[in-house]
Design goal:
The chain is an alpha/beta fold. The protein has seven helices and 14 strands. A six-stranded mixed sheet has the order 1-2-3-4-5-6, covered by helices on one side. A six-stranded mixed sheet has the order 7-8-9-10-13-14. Strand 2 and strand 3 form a beta hairpin.
Length: about 220
């Protein structure tokens, strides 16, 4: 999200690392109106609510990139607390999301409730967040229904667990496939352009260009 010096971008992003997985729960909101969305509330709902109060965000929706517990574990409680809909991911993750309580038991996590998305998204849809229009890209491989959200004008993407700074999403979980993941990165993310900044589900942001040149998994 590069802007001329001295000019702030129209949206602000607050990252709230949640749970032992240190997942990047992202709060994206319009600087002027404070309207926004919470992306991937994996848990620690009280911490997310505190951040929302601190920044005075008016949450309109909760958005999910995919159905793994570290991204959806707090969605049901947060949606109930805020009285907002849950949007996404792709319907191919329906089974994953339905089994989120089983995922919780597998990882020794307590207090997780299943969530039923109010709307599934698909390739080619447009998602409005924080007054912006994001293109919806279906990028399976890490999870069958994984989505990436891209703001073409701001040159900014939210990539979930598809692509990371220096790495890519793991594919040893149910529904994962390494060849499919690499194809998603090659065919969907890299063509967005080297100048695009992306925010992953874990760790720091990076750019497509930097990862194209340095990421060992893309060589």
């Amino acid at each position: 999200m590069s802007e001329p010096e001295g000019i702030e971008p129209p949206i602000q992003i607050v990252i709230v690392p949640v749970t032992a997985f240190q997942q990047n729960c992202s709060i994206v909101f319009d600087r002027a109106t404070k309207a926004g969305a919470v992306i991937d509330p994996g848990g620690d709902v009280e911490r997310i609510l505190a951040a929302l109060r601190e920044h005075e965000v008016k949450v309109e929706k909760i958005v999910l990139t995919h159905g793994h517990i570290d991204h959806v574990g707090g969605a049901a409680d947060l949606a109930e607390a805020l009285e907002v809909p849950v949007i996404g991911p792709h319907e191919a993750d329906r089974e994953l999301i339905a089994r989120v309580e089983d995922q919780a038991r597998q990882f020794g996590v307590d207090g997780v409730r299943a969530v039923e998305p109010d709307l599934w998204l698909a390739e080619g849809d447009e998602l409005t967040m924080a007054g912006r229009s994001f293109q919806v890209l279906h990028c399976p491989g890490h999870a069958p229904g994984h989505l990436v959200f891209f703001d073409k004008e701001l040159r900014f993407a939210i990539s979930g667990d598809v692509l990371f700074a220096g790495s890519v999403g793991r594919t040893d979980l149910p529904g994962g496939n390494h060849e499919t993941l690499i194809a998603s990165i090659r065919d969907k993310m890299l063509p967005l352009g080297d100048d695009v900044t992306f925010l992953p589900g874990h760790g720091p942001a990076s750019t497509i260009g930097h990862e194209r040149q340095t990421n060992p998994f893309l060589r």
